């Protein structure tokens, strides 16, 4: 995210990742409307799209993490809607996930452990997801007030993203407007995620020189 150039497509997982993310929800809405608002065909179409994505990656021996995370979300939505018989409940899990993200991201900013800093810290050379890193190293940036401020500003677009999704989609969910809810979810999914990533990148770009916290000057 601190790179000099921003690639929106790569940021959301490339063409394949975007298709895998959008296809289940898109098929659910299209089949639901085309079948005269029949729930079962829409659920089957959505589940099939998610399963096909995982199987294709397994056959091609490519990483399945993103596809598996999509299957989990789709599976919860399918089971929830099937058990209640309410098509709007297909999207209920996603709404609760956004509630959790909104609360977590906002709290992270308020307690000065901004979300973006926590995520990027995991991938820093000092972070736990690298060979020589540690959990303590992932928080080393907190010793630099400038970095804390930068990560705080970079986290606000995510607070806005989750809040905007809930402000638009919750009323549609409560009204049972399944087609509009599905459309809003698609429009406010990857496109808005790419916007939030870009805004965070704008704040952080060119900050590589200050990645490591400033330590005491060497003695003369």
Automatic annotation (TrEMBL):
Coiled coil: none
TM ranges: 39-59, 66-83, 95-123, 151-174, 186-204
One Pfam family here: DUF3159
UniProt KW keywords: Membrane, Transmembrane, Transmembrane helix
Keyword set includes Protein biosynthesis: no
Cross-referenced InterPro entries: UCP010219
Descriptive protein name: Intracellular septation protein A
Record has Transcription as a keyword: no
Superkingdom classification of source: Bacteria
Protein's organism: Cellulomonas marina
């Amino acid at each position: 995210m601190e790179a000099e150039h921003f690639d929106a497509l790569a940021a959301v997982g490339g063409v394949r990742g975007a298709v895998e993310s959008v296809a289940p929800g898109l098929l659910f809405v299209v089949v639901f409307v085309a079948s005269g608002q029949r729930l079962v065909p829409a659920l089957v179409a959505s589940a099939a799209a998610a399963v096909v994505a995982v199987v294709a990656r397994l056959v091609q021996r490519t990483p399945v993490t993103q596809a598996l995370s999509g299957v989990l979300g789709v599976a919860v939505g399918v089971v929830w809607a099937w058990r209640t018989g309410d098509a709007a409940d297909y999207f209920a899990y996603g709404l609760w996930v956004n509630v959790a993200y909104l609360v977590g991201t906002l709290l992270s900013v308020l307690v000065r452990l901004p979300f973006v800093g926590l995520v990027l810290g995991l991938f820093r050379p000092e972070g736990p997801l690298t060979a020589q890193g540690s959990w303590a190293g992932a928080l080393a940036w907190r010793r630099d007030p400038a970095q804390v401020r930068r990560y705080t500003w970079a986290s606000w677009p995510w607070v806005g993203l989750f809040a905007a999704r809930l402000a638009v989609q919750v009323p549609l969910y409560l009204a049972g407007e399944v087609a509009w809810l599905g459309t809003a979810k698609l429009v406010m999914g990857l496109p808005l995620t790419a916007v939030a990533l870009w805004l965070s990148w704008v704040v952080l770009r060119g900050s590589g020189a200050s990645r490591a916290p400033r330590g005491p000057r060497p003695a003369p």
